Amino acid sequence: MSDTKVFYADGENPKMIEAYKRAQETFKYFWRELSWEQRRIIPALDVSCVKVAFMQEVDNETIVEHMWINDVNFDGETIYGILVNDPNELTNVNNGDEIAIPINQISDWLFASQEKTYGAFTIQAMRSEMSDEERNAHDEAWGLEFGDFNDIQVVFEQKEKPENLIEHPMSKNMKESLIDFLKNNPEEIKAQDDLGYTFLHREAIAGNQTSVEVILENGAEKNAKTNSGKTAFDFARDLKWNHLLPLLQ
Questions:
Q1: Are 48 and 72 in contact (CB under 8 A)?
Q2: Is the confidence at residue 217, as pLDDT, over 90?
Q3: Based on the structure, what is the number of domains in the chain?
Q4: Half-sphere exposure of 171 (CA within 13 A, CB side)
Q5: Looking at CB atoms within 10 Å, which of 78, 89, 144, 248 has the fewest?
Q6: Same domain, yes or no, for 85 and 62?
Q7: pLDDT band, residue 60 (cuts 50/70/90)
Q8: Which of the listed residues 163, 186, 207 is the one where a domain comes to its end?
Q9: Residue 109's closest CA among 45, 173, 57, 167?
Q10: Please, what's the b/e burial string for 9-48 (b: 16 or more CB within 10 A of its CB; e: otherwise)?
Q11: Which of 70, 31, 5 is CA-nearest to residue 236?
Q12: Contact 204/248 with Cβ under 8 angstroms?
């Protein structure tokens, strides 16, 4: 990823503005997948990264560059990562910097597995205006096959199993393992980290219905708050995980 060429595009292009919007609206699916990737013994993702709009005022002019971060983390409010591109004009950020930004500052996200890409809204907007030869060169520079720019998916097997938009299959498949884990580690149910997050907070942020149900059945406190005052319900509501709201009210 660090060697990937940065393809710049006109931020005022209506296609690009729509791509930014869709990326922000669907970022929760990126995070859901990455949260499960962090638990896998054998990694399933070839690439996972987020594109961020970086800005700087220079001579009364706002300069904007869209660059990628990886090693992404998310606490329900702020996205964290490491910048992996060299700025073209900006001087206030550098390759390798640790980044912390709100969702409304991202312009794209991408993960890839088994030679299939997910997300990549700005990339597909740019590819839609390229010739076949240009698209091939673009994909070769990335080392990925981006496929049909009119067919952007955000979750595995989205067409075959549309229910995956509601819940990640691993949340269902890991139910018995989670039950056993909580039986053997009951202290994890109500434990809070240094920022006040509980197991329930984390699973709500990732949209994992089965996990949330199991944790609640084992005595989790719905109204536990993070240091910033957020409950699991607050995160589910803000991220529009609507299937979780009845469970957390």
A1: yes
A2: yes
A3: 2
A4: 23
A5: 89
A6: yes
A7: confident
A8: 163
A9: 45
A10: beeeeeebeebbebbbebbbbbbbbbbbeeeeeeeeeebb
A11: 31
A12: yes
Tens of pLDDT, residue by residue over 29-53, are: 999 999 999 999 999 999 999 999 9
202 φ/ψ angles, rounded to the nearest 5 degrees:
-65, -40
Q: Is 74 exposed, middle or buried (0-12, 13-18, 19+ CB in 10 A)?
A: buried
Last residue in a domain, options 111, 142, 163: 163
Over residues 52-78, mean pLDDT = 94
Going by C-beta distance under 8 Å and a sequence separation of 6 or more, which residues neighbour residue 57?
A: 63
pLDDT, the chain, mean: 94
Angle, helices 209-217 vs 175-184, to 10°: value is: 30
Q: Which residue has the tokens 């088994």?
A: 114
Distance CA 55, CA 14 (A): 20
DSSP states along 223-237? T---TTS--HHHHHH
Q: Please, which pLDDT band fits residue 58 given cuts at 50, 70 and 90?
A: confident
pLDDT of residue 8: 46
Residues 122 and 193 in one domain: no
